[in-house]
Design brief:
This protein has helices at residues 10-26, 32-38, 43-55, 95-105; strands at 59-61, 68-71, 74-75, 81-85, 88-92, 109-114, 121-127, 130-131. By secondary structure, the chain is of the alpha+beta class. It has 2 domains: 10-71, Arc Repressor Mutant, subunit A (Orthogonal Bundle), CATH 1.10.10; 75-136, Alkylmercury lyase (Bactericidal permeability-increasing protein, domain 1, Super Roll), CATH 3.15.10. An 8-stranded antiparallel beta sheet has the order 1-2-3-5-4-6-7-8. The chain is globular, with a radius of gyration of 17 Å. The protein starts with 9 loop residues before the first helix and ends in a 23-residue tail after the last strand.
Length: 154
């Protein structure tokens, strides 16, 4: 038996897109039962798709649960990386993903986070797809090729 991840399917693509659409619309992934109804499938088929998508590093499922924890760049759990788009508050997994949320949304937004060095709150404004001038530095402690060693920590 091979340790290689299974190939994702057209069904997996539909599941992935439905999760993204839910994140964009509500800042949260859909409940697995609701997602099953949306893609005309059973909850078991959705869970199997989640497994394939997780193996492909497309999303992360909460341990011991059928719920999506993250589908990059979105986080279903509260983090220190917030993206404010009008009255909607999205959470991202890291600073890199916070700017990715803005790119996915395709509209003006503010990224708020804490300085990892001093703990001070900082904010960055993106308008018309451009980062407004300001001070800031993003430092990646873990090299990108190691992120999936422990994606929750990273």
């Amino acid at each position: 038996m091979s340790d290689a991840p299974q190939q994702s399917t057209g069904f997996d693509d539909r599941v992935r897109l439905a999760v993204y659409r839910s994140f964009v619309k509500t800042a949260q992934p859909p409940h697995p039962d609701e997602l099953a109804r949306q893609v005309n499938a059973t909850p078991e088929q959705v869970r199997a798709s989640y497994g394939r998508l997780a193996d492909a590093h497309v999303l992360v499922v909460q341990p011991q649960s059928p719920f999506v924890r993250m589908e990059m760049p979105f986080s279903a759990v509260v983090t220190d990386y917030e993206v404010l788009d009008g009255s909607t508050r999205y959470h991202a997994n890291c600073a890199w993903d916070a700017f990715g949320v803005v790119a996915v949304l395709g509209r003006d937004a503010t990224v708020r986070c804490r300085c990892a060095d001093c703990g001070e709150r900082v904010a960055f404004r993106i308008e018309h797809n451009k980062l407004e001038p300001g001070d800031g530095l993003i430092h990646f402690v873990v090299p990108a090729h190691r992120w999936w060693d422990d994606i929750i920590f990273t």
